[in-house]
Amino acid sequence: MTTDNGTTYLEPTQESGRDFMLRGIEGEVIMLNLLRFREIADYSGTPDLQPDEPISGAAAYDLYVEHTLPHLRESGGDLEFVGEGGSLLIGPPDERWDAVLLVRHRSVQTFMSFAQNEAYLGGMGHRLAAISDSRLMPVVRRA
């Protein structure tokens, strides 16, 4: 499924990154991830990461998480919740998300450092192979 205008979302845009930084978030930030997996992972962009046999998008995402967790934890963050998604109870009846994740970062600065870490970025191909669409929303605890 894509949006009404046919757009899929796999990475932040320059505008969304700028707006995120301009929010001036202080302290901990939780990243709410909504993910829709490909039936079969598409490694055409990173053939060097492709497994010997075709795998599902969900399996490719598992490889991404396995690669990512050490780098995330090294930055002071952690994976707080992983859940199976599905259809919405409130929302468009044809919209569904396969997985929901909550990822905690100590701060916007530690998130940015993590997101630019070359060792972490080396496994990003698993994520891009895995998902057909996604949403990422930075959320903060209300005062």
What does this structure look like?
- With 143 residues, the chain is an alpha+beta fold.
- It has helices spanning 14-22, 57-74, 108-115, 118-121, 124-130, and strands at 29-37, 78-87, 96-105, 131-139.
- The termini are far apart.
- The longest helix is centred in the middle third of the chain and has 18 residues, at 57-74.
- A hairpin with an 8-residue loop joins β2 and β3.
- It is globular, with a radius of gyration of 15 Å.
- The chain has one domain (28-139): Alpha-Beta Plaits (2-Layer Sandwich).
- α2 packs antiparallel against α5 (124-130).
Quick overview:
Helices cover 32% and strands 27% of the residues. It is of the alpha+beta class and 143 residues long.
Helix-strand blueprint:
Layout: H1 14-22, E1 29-37, H2 57-74, E2 78-87, E3 96-105, H3 108-115, H4 118-121, H5 124-130, E4 131-139
Antiparallel strand pairs: 1-3, 1-4, 2-3
